[in-house]
Queue: 3 jobs
Job 1
Amino acid sequence: MGEQVHNRLAMVRAERKVSRQSLAEAVGAHYQTIGYIERGQYNPSLDLALKIAKFFGLPVEALFSLEPFRPLTDQVYGRNQ
């Protein structure tokens, strides 16, 4: 599969109260694909990653990264890296 792409998709989707099904329909994917991406079992294509970012109105790097994301509490409360 190559290098794993880390993501915050499940967290953002839950925060925005968006179902896998509705996200999938909006970006032209199958709802199971969204689940596979969230669990790190599938790396999205660049096209799909950009569509997902556009759907949420976020830069793609806010949702996807080649490096693991720091916990949001660390980022918000300034814990050292």
Note: The beta strands are 6-7, 64-65.
Job 2
Amino acid sequence: MVIYPNGTYKPILTSTDGLASPSATAVLGDRLYITDGGVPEPHDPKLRTARINFPALLAGAAH
């Protein structure tokens, strides 16, 4: 989820993006790291990474 300063939010990644059981997140600069425990079958834990497009995220924020 992206949570904006005004309290609104919107989902960014869901199970349709391949997240089975996300357990932690970290941000370093413009990189997002998500650990996925892989709890449901087929038990495939992963570390997922992505670049954050801050201008695109902030364009959706209500000011």
Note: The two ends are 18 Å apart (CA to CA).
Job 3
Amino acid sequence: MTATDRSIELINAAAQAAADKLAHDIIAYDVSDVLSITDAFLLASAPNDRQVKSIVDEIEERLNKDLGAKPVRREGDREARWVLLDYVDIVIHVQHSEERVFYALERLWKDCPELELPEDAKATRGKAAEHAEETAAEQDGELR
């Protein structure tokens, strides 16, 4: 079994919305062969809680406005460190960069096929590492 056309449409719209809000390391997996509860997962991250919330809000607004989709469940809003949006067909995880590294969800789904995403979303790969290096360099400069 593979992800449905509707699931892929939702994933692509969500990935583009996340990229538009400067999410880092956007990736999606077709998990339909290993899970019966959903077709695909989208993972994205951001370096701070405010940006996590902004990305989540943009995804939710875009999917509702453009595709008429509303999440059946939304978890993690209060802390905005890891927000989960469950659309039944797809599940979206937007994590603070620290949680993304700690929980490493990619490890769990590495055997599942990766879904093709819009170019803007693919261009976000490696952004978390770049941001971490820039932040470290800035902090190093302040310590001198």
Note: The chain has a mean pLDDT of 91.
